[in-house]
Description:
Blueprint: H1 9-52, H2 59-73, E1 81-89, E2 92-103, E3 113-122
Antiparallel strand pairs: 1-2, 2-3
Amino acid sequence: MNLTDDRGSATVEFTLVSILLVLLTLGVMQVALVLHVKNTVADAAAEGARWAALADSSLPAGVARTAELINTSVGPSYSGDVRARFLDWLGQPAVEVTVRTTLPALGLWVPAVPLEVSGHAAREVVG
């Protein structure tokens, strides 16, 4: 047996490098998934707040709009707890829509991390 003979080492190197590249790719895809869900839910909360803040709208309409956007974008499992309320935001009448959901911690099939986001919009006041 000759220790300077490197026949067959390419297969081992390819296997080791492939494992690292697959793990790196899966990690990047997981970060992208988490950011997509977080940004989508936050945007849906803001849109729901704007919808509820319209002069001819209501809080239940804002909640329904938020849930509809989340259901369409990332699925119904992420729109379980959506709430809306009137408040004063920086001294002005406003609407706040809050979504409590979970972020996929590792793919879509394992336990997730809790997430709470809120969207605010100035209320239209007629008269």
